[in-house]
Amino acid sequence: MFAVSLGDDGAELRPLEPWNAGEYLAHMDRGREYIGRFIALADRSADLASATAFLQSYADKAAADSGRLYGIWADGVLVGGVLFKTFDAESGNCEVGCWLEQAAVGRGLITRAIRVLIDWAVEQRGMHRVEWVASSGNTASINVAKRLGMVRDAVLRESNLYRGVRHDMEIWSVLARDWRRQDDASGR
Question: CA-CA distance, 149 to 172, in Å (whole number)?
Fold first, then answer.
């Protein structure tokens, strides 16, 4: 197994796999209310069987090269994650996403982890476009997209029915050439 350091604070990014289901479920139980405010991820893992099934669905996506799932560990505890919700190498398009339990907010973990994913997608896999989709009400998620230098492409008005309420969804993106330009400018 591998781990990618997310900085000098000990946080790391690792694959999140079916054998992590117990740890993943405990994480969801700690963060269920906070995580579930804008995304259905917490609702999809109510018990060990559903948590295992969710993680297996991403193991299957990884095997098919159509998605991937990674956990963020801080001080040895799973506190969140990032993913390629979709990954289409043929078209050169993918969508990244994230979640984080409230206790880990404010440390830049998501921004750092998504940078790792985008760097890999663009530089190793030749992705042309990386998308980020978030509820307009999820200002923390929108702020990550901005910090990553993404551009807001569209607002899909009331396109997502979640927990009985229709939410506007924003689509943000970064193109490979713009990502590389940012890297060059920042010296990363």
Answer: 9
Instruction: Please report, for residues 43, 47, 60, 161, 162, the alpha-carbon distance to residue 168 in angstroms, rounded to integers and kept in the order given.
Output: 20, 30, 30, 9, 11
- pLDDT tens for each residue of 49-83: 999 999 999 999 999 999 999 999 999 999 999 99
What whole-number distance in Å separates Cα of residue 133 and Cα of residue 47?
A: 27
Asked if 77 contacts 97 with a C-beta cutoff of 8 angstroms, the reply is no
Residue-level length of the chain = 188
- Calpha distance 133→128 (Å, rounded): 17
Check: CB of residue 17 under 8 Å from CB of residue 25.
Answer: no
Cβ neighbours of residue 118 under 8 Å, at least 6 residues apart?
A: 96, 130, 148, 174, 179
CB 168 within 8 A of CB 135: yes
Element (H, E) at 174: strand 165-175
Give the count of alpha carbons within 13 A of 188, CB side only.
13
3-class SS of residue 166: strand
**pTM of this prediction exceeds 0.85:** yes
pLDDT digits (tens, 9 = 90+) for 105-128: 999 999 999 999 999 999 999 999
